[in-house]
Amino acid sequence: MEDLRCTKAIIAVAGFGTRRLPLTKAIEKCMIPVGNRPIIDYVVDDCIKAGITDIYLIVGEDASQIRRYYGHNPALEAHLEAKGKTDALRGVQDLSTKARFHFIVQDNQQPYGTSIPIDLCKEFIDPGERFVVVFGDQFFYHADGGSELAYFMQRAATCNTSSMMLGVTVPHEQTVNYGVIAYKQVGDQCLYEHIVERPATPDEAPSDLNNASFFIFESGVLPFIHANATADIAGEHFLIDALNAYVAAGNSIAVLEAKGEYLDCGTVQGWLHANNRVLGTEDHV
Description:
The chain is an alpha/beta fold. The chain has one domain (8-279): Spore Coat Polysaccharide Biosynthesis Protein SpsA, Chain A. 28% of the residues lie in helices and 27% in strands. The chain has 9 helices and 13 strands. The protein has a 7-stranded mixed beta sheet. It is globular, with a radius of gyration of 19 Å. It starts with 7 loop residues before the first strand and ends in a 6-residue tail after the last helix.
């Protein structure tokens, strides 16, 4: 079995969070709480459990809340120490040492889209290195406390492709709400072909797999992402378009099905469900 040796994760959190307006006008979308922690902390912990040591957080130019969360607050720490609240003190101090955090700014003058955050990190990826890409308004729930990324890496190590992506099975009638993965079966592997974004009817959906925006890439994908990020495009610069070009050039991306429960906090309904699941107020799946 091949050792993937992924130690770097790029987590994109610079978006405006338009699905959660007006709340996200004042609160960074990745900092919306689930239980007593922000969404991003579940994503970060999933990565750390899988052996990630360097986390590249792509933030907006006005982002300050996430920096404060993973930074130090000397006044708060002094207060907790003076009050003898050692558990709380340890909890806030440990946040900054979970991993090596790198904050990369995606300023408002740069193009908008899902390929941009990855392109901003290309200089930090060595030739031949694999890395993880995740988007920061979603995470996976495991009742046993397991890591989706760790499971993903274990199964990805058995693939004969250099890049991999996760899909989440959704009810067939709900495929009209998602970016659905079209894939082909080659031996015992599913290989990515393209995405059908919100098919008009369930019958037009090529599968029941929603794109979970959870990837393991090899460095060879970066030129395709850079080409997309720097292209003269009127609308958004989509990562999927770069992946389509990568595959068209003869590369393969294995599609693996997620093991945990996918919690999308980008909608109010999804966020409420995530809180209920994490807090144990719903029956476990």
